[in-house]
Amino acid sequence: MSLTRIIACLGVVIALAAGPLAVDHARAAEKLEIVATVSMVGDAVAAIAGDRADVTTLMGEGVDPHLYRQTQSDIAAMVRADAVFWNGLYLEAQLEEFLEKLAERKPVFAIAEAMPAELRLSSADYPDRYDPHIWMSPDLWRHAVTAARDALIELDPDGASAYRANAASYLAEMDALARYAKDSLATVPENKRVLITAHDAFGYFGDSYDFEVIGIQGLSTESEAGLQRVDEIVNLIVDRNIESIFVETSVSERNVMALVEGAAARGHTVAIGGELFSDAMGATGTYTGTYLGMIDSNATTITNALGGNAPEGGLKGKLIGS
């Protein structure tokens, strides 16, 4: 974010500080007003909060959080909210400075940063940063969900019992999803457990389910994939006879199609195995517009595209027509 933009954002914060915040805090005695940055965070917070909070999510279907820049209305919403929840670990790269400044005057929670440091994946591209995509493993996302629960209890102690009960229910569903993903993905032949995607968002997935993961771009879509990188992956696809690769809903398919074309030029056919949810969930109001549906869809799509066996409708049969 440029210095000019930071100053402009902070100007809005200062301008809004006097009146609207007092009104919102008074209303918060009855119902919390919460803003979440990305949909995975918003889904968890909304599920745990239940009817004790209204949760607004800034980034919806198909939005890339690595590149997202807040609008004036986003700034106003965050300033007026009782609390802001974000992933952290540099996922919301363009918002980070603003959120850190906002945290000096209101509750701001980076829930993914509750995951212990020893479980975080590092990157040669960002030596001082970690892979932020921890939601790709339900077992790891538990750390973020419990952090969201504890933050809500801190904000609203009177709702503690409700938050604990809602979180327990949500975590139980996540546990069932983790078991389904593990069982389904285990049916993929070991020599076919190579996941090639648009960017490197599936590292925790690979660690959890024993897949080799290759992203054309790095951890952040801010990085550009050069011709050499594309050629390297094309060679890998041909040499290892890889039959399917994947596009992502929140990232341009341009680089993935370059792999398809490059392999074809060398006499090898590689198909698009399906569309994966990486940095954003599906459309609001659909099953894949929930965290559970997002991961269910990914696990089911990857399993079936790479030679495994998973029910077409996924864990609960809800993927058909979703």
Please characterize this protein's 3D structure.
With 322 residues, this protein is α/β, with parallel strands linked by helices. It has two domains: 3-180, Rossmann fold (3-Layer(aba) Sandwich), CATH 3.40.50.1980; 187-305, 3-Layer(aba) Sandwich (Rossmann fold), CATH 3.40.50. It has eleven helices and eight strands. The chain has helices at residues 3-17, 20-28, 39-49, 72-80, 96-102, 138-155, 160-185, 203-209, 227-239, 254-265, 291-305; strands spanning 32-38, 53-59, 83-86, 108-110, 194-199, 212-217, 244-248, 271-276. The strands form three sheets. It has a four-stranded parallel sheet, with helices on both faces. The model is unreliable at 1-7 and 14-28 (pLDDT under 50).
Class by alpha and beta content: alpha/beta
Percentage beta strand: 5-15%
Count of distinct structural domains: 2
In CATH, the architecture of the largest domain is 3-Layer(aba) Sandwich
Q: How many helices does DSSP assign?
A: 11
CATH T-level fold name of the largest domain: Rossmann fold
Q: What does the largest sheet look like?
A: 4 strands, parallel
Strand order within the widest beta sheet: 2-1-3-4
The helix/strand series, from N terminus to C terminus, equals HHEHEHEHEHHEHEHEHEH
Q: Level of helix content?
A: 40-55%
Calculate Rg over CA atoms: 20 Å
Sum up the overall morphology in one term.
Answer: globular
N- and C-termini, Cα separation: 37 Å
Report the average pLDDT across residues: 90
The CATH homologous superfamily of the largest domain is called: Nitrogenase molybdenum iron protein domain
CATH class of the largest domain reads Alpha Beta
Q: Compute the number of strand runs.
A: 8
Low-confidence stretches at least 5 residues in length (pLDDT < 50)? 1-7, 14-28
